[in-house]
């Protein structure tokens, strides 16, 4: 229900309006939505609010032969359809440190958690599950801290659900179980027990939403699927057809 539609081109698009006129989204039930350009090559579409549960969505990228600027033309068109599943939202307040999971607005599980410590706070905002790995190695080098530098690490974890490109995950962290629900000690991830991480991995998935409140600075719109962190007016302003 939180999955934005992402279209990425392999060349810079200088005539964004011409391209955007050829991008079409239809859904059952209908929603109010907008495209917004995140870069010269990437444009995302999201509704004003989350996709309603069990919505059917069709996307047409009709850019074959369309002049995108600087003498470049679209080389192929695409048609994609997908179905939105149940409404799945997880919420956590960094001052309470309890991850609450809701399915169709019903609370189904609570998980003690530990978020980012003061030196590496978890950004506040709305995240979307991007991908999941049964096993994953966390590396400080992914955000610029070499393994041999102070604070460097490589740590294998289980049941890793990625929430951002900057390295925020929900994952099993047996070393911090005593802190979970009590103190925020992670490098930014949502640490939970291995059992709880496994439950999240099995029952939540790509496109499901995690809302983090009262944590660090605001999550950036461009970080993974951070689209929901733009208010609706700002999101619409990113459309080439809004100008």
Automatic annotation (TrEMBL):
Residues annotated as the enzyme's active site: 171 (proton donor/acceptor), 189 (nucleophile)
Pathway participation: Cell wall biogenesis; peptidoglycan biosynthesis; Glycan biosynthesis
UniProt GO MF annotations: acyltransferase activity; peptidoglycan L,D-transpeptidase activity
GO biological process terms on file: cell wall organization; peptidoglycan-protein cross-linking; regulation of cell shape
Keyword Kinase: no
InterPro entries according to UniProt: Big_10, LD-transpeptidase, LD_TPept_cat_dom, Transpep_catalytic_dom
Gene Ontology CC annotations of this record: extracellular region
Residue intervals of the L,D-TPase catalytic domain: 88-213
Coiled coil location: none
Protein name: L,D-transpeptidase
Organism listed in the record: Modestobacter muralis
